[in-house]
Design a protein that fits this description.
Heat-shock protein Hsp20, Immunoglobulin-like, about 140 residues, A-crystallin/Hsp20_dom, Small_HSP, HSP20-like_chaperone, three-stranded antiparallel sheet, four-stranded antiparallel sheet, alpha+beta
Length: about 140
C-alpha cells in the first residue's frame, strides 16, 4: 500500500524516476503552474447564495482579481516579488512569482450583493442567487 501512487500524481512519479529528475527539479521554478498546481477552490451551494473559497497563502489582496461576467466567476492571482525581496542575496529561494486563474460557471448568480473577503490566506466570495428566469418564449402562430 505504501508504494501506491494516486493516478493524478503518476506522471510526476514517472518524472522523478527518470535519470534526469534532478535536472528537471532544478528548472522546475521556471515552469508555469499547471491547473493541478494552481490554488485550491471550493464552491458551496448555501441555499440563497453560493460561497466560493480559494486558498491563497502568502498572497496579498491587491494581487487578486475577482470578476463575475455573465454567470462566470473568475479568480485570478498575479503574485509578484517585492522590490525588497529582489535586493536580497539568496543562496536558495523556493518562492517565486506566479500567475494562476480559476473559474466556475454559476448560472443563476446575481451581481447585486456580491462580496469578497480575504482573511488568513483564504479568499471567500459570497455570490447571491437570483430568481431563475426562463429563457423560453412561447410564440403564438397566426
Amino acid at each position: 500500500m505504501a508504494g501506491m501512487v494516486p493516478y493524478s500524481d503518476y506522471e510526476k512519479a514517472l518524472r522523478r524516476a527518470w535519470p534526469f529528475g534532478a535536472f528537471d527539479d532544478f528548472f522546475a521554478p521556471l515552469a508555469a503552474i499547471s491547473a493541478d498546481d494552481a490554488f485550491k477552490m471550493n464552491v458551496e451551494d448555501a441555499g440563497d447564495k453560493y460561497v466560493v473559497t480559494a486558498e491563497l497563502p502568502g498572497v496579498k489582496k491587491d494581487e487578486v482579481d475577482v470578476e463575475l461576467n455573465e454567470g462566470r466567476l473568475s479568480i485570478s492571482v498575479d503574485k509578484k516579488e517585492s522590490d525588497e525581496e529582489k535586493n536580497k542575496n539568496y543562496l536558495q529561494k523556493e518562492t517565486s512569482e506566479w500567475q494562476a486563474s480559476r473559474g466556475v460557471y454559476l448560472k443563476d448568480a446575481a451581481t447585486d450583493g456580491l462580496t469578497a473577503k480575504m482573511d488568513g490566506g483564504v479568499l471567500t466570495v459570497n455570490v447571491p442567487k437570483q430568481a431563475e428566469k426562463s429563457n423560453v418564449t412561447k410564440v403564438a402562430i397566426d
